[in-house]
Bifunctional UDP-N-acetylglucosamine 2-epimerase/N-acetylmannosamine kinase (Cepphus grylle), 737 residues
Amino acid sequence: EVYFKNLSKQKQKEVMEKNGNNHKLRVCVATCNRADYSKLAPIMFGIKAEPQFFELDVVVLGSHLIDDYGNTYRMIEQDDFDIHTRLHTIVRGEDEAAMVESVGLALVKLPDVLNRLKPDIMIVHGDRFDALALATSAALMNIRILHIEGGEVSGTIDDSIRHAITKLAHYHVCCTRSAEQHLIAMCEDHDRILLAGCPSYDKLLSAKNKDYMSIIRMWLGEDVKTRDYIVALQHPVTTDIKHSIKMFELTLDALISFNKRTLVLFPNVDAGDKEMVRVMRKKGIEHHPNFRAVKHVPFDQFIQLVAHAGCMIGNSSCGVREVGAFGTPVINLGTRQTGRETGENVLHVRDADTQDKILHALQLQFGKQYPCSKIYGDGNAVPRILKFLKSIDLKEPLQKKFCFPPVKDNISQDIDHILETQSALAVDLGGTNLRVAIVSMKGEIVKKYTQLNPKTYEDRLELILKMCIEAASEAVNVNCRILGVGISTGGRVNPREGIVLHSTKLIQEWSAVDLRTPISDALHLPVWVDNDGNCAALAERKFGHGKGIENFVTLITGTGIGGGIVHQHELIHGSSFCAAELGHIVVSLDGPECLCGSQGCIEAYASGIALQREAKKLHDEDLLLVEGMSMKEEEVVSAAHLIQAAKLGNTKADSILRTAGTALGLGVVNILHTMNPSLVILSGVLASHYVNAVKDVINRQALSSVKTVDVVVSNLADPALLGAASLVLDYTTRRIY
């Protein structure tokens, strides 16, 4: 909304002058079914709200006008839109021929409508056969076409129809960066491609209905609780109707066995849909006490139903697209959505050939809660689309131009033709400071915020949320698109659940803390959490010395000693998320006591805390300060004083540092003999002081077969933040079952 309100009035004036001062853009929106209306309605509301720029004509056809599918044109009337034309275009039938005849009937009827309306531009959505008839008619009648959701990849005949409409369309609004790249690869003019996000997300991300329980009870019964019911929506696969019918039977059998209250929606108008309805009736679904079978649910109410469901199952694009905005678990059956970008809430059952397999998937997914996903939109699609429409110059030649290879790199642009940088919000929870940064895909820290880390859990979480919200708002101003939040924290972390299991003593009240849920709920972004040592290794893998290295180890030398292990390009977490606690490798049986309660750990010798402890001992005995050093009375003794003393010739300080370096070197030798990495990266403020000592110990103590290992000092200025960003920027969301 802010983005839209701040549009340049001068640019609007220029476009009006180009198209004629008094000429409003006449936009025809044609909707064919309940699904495409949920995407088109937000755009229609936006167009209707600006009568000084647009004239809106609404054409309704397809399954909207069929009683068997709920006469869904009524919801368009309820939204207070004037329907200019109703076209009955569906030919009844149960095979592929009926779909072809429906396209033909629409092609016969549409020319008369378009001749009467004479729109400047027609908005067509998606990949249905009805939409192909609309695009064909408009293209042959020299009417500009704006195609919504082109460039995506799914399955069945829908892919072919979608790409065919792309070739007919003059302008494209896509939802994801991958879809945008597909359009560019298909030789579409990148100046006519808008990466806006899905229009339905404008409504999804702002949907707040305190009375959602009344909606749930209305559709599923009075005794149903949130997260304790299932929404099922399955359509026939037109390229393999027989198999999709069998899969639907298995799905219903699994749902009956699972014994949870289930809302089943009727399938789309496609070849095979009648047979699916017969399967429902054969199994008595409409009269089964656990099932509610309905032809249509209004979109506003459908949003609330899926947002609070225990699971959604089927093969609808809604499951892999819109439902991710709520983190509701989804089971995607078969191949109908193969290739779609999905959030981690989606479990794919590609070959759903047995009831047991579907039942097992239900047992895995039901009742879980995943991070909210914004893969398909950030809630600002409609303002971008309206601005895009206003920028269209009707005096430009109608003939399309194709941009044949080679394709430019990095030509993603929003409506102002400015590159929006894919970025992450990175959070670093240290013992002293709490830092949040906007980090670009290239590892550039665009903006950084620093505050003292509060001592209590409540204050700390409140500050994290406040800083993240502030950074997310600022991201718009610096032209960054935030993909998610990555958090680096001390202690033992379960990265799968986003929970800090146990904390170090440096961060108080920080055990058994769920970080993912509150931050994801507040920002509507996916959230990843990991140990700070693991994050440092990820930073090296993406931005530092570890880039392209198959096996390497990172050691952080700071207040404590930590690290991360990358083996065969993957980070090792261990069976209880305790892998790479490298600071607690024991190098002496009777060494100094460590904060972990053991003795002789590397951390007890070589950490900043250990060096500070030894510096205080020397200072208490008046053995620390040498010529050239001075300390104020109130100044706290630190590891830095010990290092300074050693450099100025203090032999005792130098001996302590050599012992610390030897301890660290022995730990590294143990790592070499255990993991056999090809590279060891020393990171942190003490790394440069230890690197030579570590190399010396390796030469003296290591087996000859591992002495060739490279030991280097990290060149990354901020590995904790960069590693937290890597959690987001490198995360793969697709899961296969």
Remarks:
- The chain has four domains: 23-198, 208-365, 414-544, 546-715.
